[in-house]
Amino acid sequence: MTRLIALVLLSALTLAGCDAGVGTSQYKVSAGGTSKVQYRTLDSVNALRSAAGVQPVQLNAQLNAAAATHARDMSVQNRPWHFGSDGSSPIERVARTGYAGRLVGETISETYETELETLGAWMEQDDTRAVILDKDARDMGFAWFQESNGKIWWTLVMGTSEQAPMIPN
Predict the structure, then answer these.
(1) 144-158 tens-digit pLDDT
(2) Long-range pairs of 42-47 with CB within 8 A, sequence gap ≥ 24
(3) 66 with 97: CB under 8 angstroms?
């Protein structure tokens, strides 16, 4: 039943984010729309977490920075994967931002879809859904890089500042 509620909520959120001109133009994230997209995604993630009985997360500037760095780097590498072109792992990228907490997980995508469609696709996969709904997560970072051809590289990072860091000081 909880899964059904989450799917209904996600469907409603996806439809709410749809443009009246769907099918007539390519989805473009506006240059000034960063916070709007981040907060729309945060609200959607928290609706899904609430339906699953998990506490909400908040946006974190350091995790946003780690997500933005990786989204751009995936574009440079032209492949969706969790390692940076310098060999960095998600744990190392989060530590570089000065985030004092622990990485819970990272989800990534290479797509032409909106942030809400991408979130919906992540919720359909066991591994990425587990990151989004992880009960330990307290903080979220979300960013993207859009290429001139419209392709979007999405990165969502979950962390928790309430537990000991995973990287020793």
Answers:
(1) 999 999 999 999 999
(2) 42/140, 42/142, 43/13, 44/10, 44/13, 44/116, 44/119, 45/119, 45/132, 45/140, 45/156, 47/9, 47/10, 47/13
(3) yes
Which residues have CB under 8 Å from 82's CB, separation 6+?
89, 90, 106, 108
Q: Which of 28, 73, 67 minimizes the C-alpha distance to 45?
A: 67
Taking the model in full, what pTM does it have? 0.79
- Tokens standing for residue 24: 């007539």
Residue 112 has pLDDT above 90, yes or no: no
Spatial contact of 85 and 79, defined as CB atoms under 8 Å apart: no
Whether 103 and 90 have beta carbons less than 8 Å apart is answered as: yes
Read off the pLDDT band of 13 (50, 70, 90). Answer: very low
Query: What sections of the chain are H helices per DSSP?
Result: 2-16, 34-51, 61-77, 90-96, 115-123, 126-132
Task: Kindly indicate the confidence band of residue 82, based on its pLDDT and cuts at 50, 70 and 90.
Answer: confident
Residue type for 38, please? Q
DSSP 145-158: EE-TTS-EEEEEEE
